[in-house]
């Protein structure tokens, strides 16, 4: 019985994380169309910070946050600041 529950939990976790990962990948590709994000993401230390910091990955994995970044300059500035802080700058 425990093995069945354990298998189900692992399956659901893998399903969730692959879904989150695909959202993240799609949203990063969408943002790479923006000059400000291209400049940020081509710097390896910032790209690493985005991928290493869970809060940044979670943020970019949500479509509503991408819409905010595309429409709101203050939101972009706060995001860039968070990335730089995470990278140690």
User: Strand share of the residues?
Assistant: under 5%
Q: What does the main sheet amount to?
A: none
Domains, number: 1
Structural class: mainly alpha
Rg computed from alpha carbons, rounded to a whole number of angstroms: 16 Å
Roughly what percent helix?
over 70%
Overall, the morphology is globular
How far do the termini sit from each other? 50 Å
What is the H-and-E element order? HHHHHH
Describe this structure in words.
The chain is mainly alpha-helical and 89 residues long. The chain has one domain. 85% of the residues lie in helices and 0% in strands. The chain is built from 6 helices and no strands. The protein has helices spanning 2-31, 35-41, 44-52, 54-60, 63-71, 73-86. The longest helix is centred in the first third of the chain and has 30 residues, at 2-31. The N and C termini lie far apart (50 Å).
What's the short story on this structure?
The chain has helices at 2-31, 35-41, 44-52, 54-60, 63-71, 73-86. It is mostly helical.
């Amino acid at each position: 019985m425990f093995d069945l529950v354990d298998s189900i939990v692992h399956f659901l976790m893998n399903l969730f994380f692959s879904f989150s990962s695909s959202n993240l990948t799609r949203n990063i590709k969408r943002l790479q169309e923006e000059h400000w994000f291209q400049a940020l993401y081509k710097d390896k230390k910032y790209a690493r910070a985005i991928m290493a910091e869970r809060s940044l990955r979670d943020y970019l994995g949500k479509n509503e946050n991408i819409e905010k970044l595309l429409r709101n300059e203050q939101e972009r500035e706060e995001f860039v600041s968070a990335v730089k802080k995470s990278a140690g700058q």
